[in-house]
Amino acid sequence: MRYSWSFLLKRFGLFLLIIWSAATLNFFIPKLTPRNPLREKLIAEAARTGYMPPGFTEMVNAYEAKFGLDQPLWQQYVRYVGDMLRFDLGYSIASYPKTVLELIMEAIPYTIGILVVATVVAFFVGTLMGALMGWERSSFFVRHILPMSTILGAIPAFVLGLILFYFLSFRWKILPLRGAHSASMVPELTIPFILDILKHSILPSLTVILSSLGGWAIGMRGMMVTVQGEDYMNFGEAKGLKGRRLFYKYGVRNAILPQVTGLALAFSYIVSGSVLVETVCAYPGIGQLLAVSINRLDYSVIYGIVFVLTVTIAVAMLVMDLIYPLLDPRIRYEKT
Questions:
Q1: How far apart are the C-alpha atoms of 327 and 45, rounded to whole Å?
Q2: Which domains does the chain have, with CATH numbers?
């Protein structure tokens, strides 16, 4: 067994502490603004209809009582923590009577299907590119010409998205201009609808992959250059191991460890990085939902999205800690 009970208990305790700390900050930071989301929502509705109902202040007070915003801050916090423990994210203020969980479940499939998959694809392709670029037995093209492709990593994702949008969608009309699917398509589990979804997902996926590919490649190239001077690499070469086995089993396996940690950390940028990408592509994912909720000061949705993101990152880091010994036999989490 590579894990001791003391390590598992400490790591799980740290996991809970991270979630609690992030949830606490998530609660108090939006409270620093003097704006009243309920009042702003009701005023916006009155402005839209052109009619201000009598007893407006009483209406605001009634809604504040319904959402618990009339209670002292510490009572709101206790209620908030209790709701988070039950995974009850409450109702959206701006989209009432929809619940926060309903809004997240509507948006999260698009984010998972685009950003998570694109991040994983960029990780594997970029890592392989970097390993080949750092391998001294690679061809001239791989070592000297291929690194030029990493220049795209210096371009911000939203700028790259605008460039791709202009050429692929606006000018050449190869890809759709906006949305997750065509307005004429009825959402249903059919092959035409799935193909339409995939076609609309190409632009944001390509933006994420091209903008992050260079970072993965450069990081892996540096680690690959470092491990080639290690004793085990020299010993394997002296034994006459085949180049492919020496490359994968000795070089890539040891150089990839920092990349795996980086992959876990990359998930923390999925939502924050998707805000601009999804906005540029008008894609209805978690990032766009978060941007809209911030503009509307929809506390409940902000709480819910950040809480789900926090739990996801904490779980990813916990999983990374547990699979490290499987990637590197030299790592053991047990008492010696």
A1: 56
A2: 19-85 (no CATH), 100-327 (1.10.3720.10)
Nearest to 107 by CA among 262, 252, 326, 287: 287
Using an 8 Å Cβ cutoff, are 233 and 227 in contact?
yes
Q: Identify whether the C-beta of residue 70 lies closer than 8 Å to the C-beta of residue 63.
A: no
Give the Cα separation of 333 and 336 in Å (integer): 9
Report the distance separating Cα 204 and Cα 197, nearest Å. 12
Query: Which tops the pLDDT comparison, 203 or 331?
Result: 203
Is the alpha carbon torsion for 276, 282, 283, 285 positive or negative? positive
Q: Could you give the CA distance from residue 307 to residue 299 in angstroms, rounded to a whole number?
A: 12
Q: How many residues does the chain have?
A: 336
Selection from 69, 73, 79, 81 nearest residue 307 by Cα: 81
Interval 62-92: pLDDT, tens: 767 766 677 788 888 888 888 888 877 877 8
- What are residue 265's phi and psi, to 5 degrees? -70, -30
Residue type, 285: G
- What does residue 78 show for φ and ψ, rounded to 5 degrees? -60, -45
Distance CA 200, CA 179 (A): 7
Q: Which of 112, 138, 139 is nearest to 278 (CA)?
A: 112
What's the Cα-to-Cα distance from 198 to each of 25, 83, 106, 114, rounded to whole Å? 37, 36, 17, 9
Residues 93, 37: contact at Cβ < 8 Å? Answer: yes
Give CA–CA dist 134/223, Å, rounded.
8
- pLDDT tens track for 125-137: 888 888 888 888 7
Tens digit of each residue's pLDDT (9 = 90 or more) over 17-47: 888 888 888 788 777 777 666 676 667 666 6
Rounded Cα distance, 297 and 111, in Å:
22
Task: Please tell me what DSSP assigns to residue 333.
Answer: B
39: amino acid identity, one letter: R
Give the list of residues 6+ apart from residue 287 with CB closer than 8 angstroms, or none.
111, 115, 271, 272, 273, 274, 275, 276, 277, 278, 279
**How far apart are alpha carbons 25 and 84 in whole angstroms?**
13
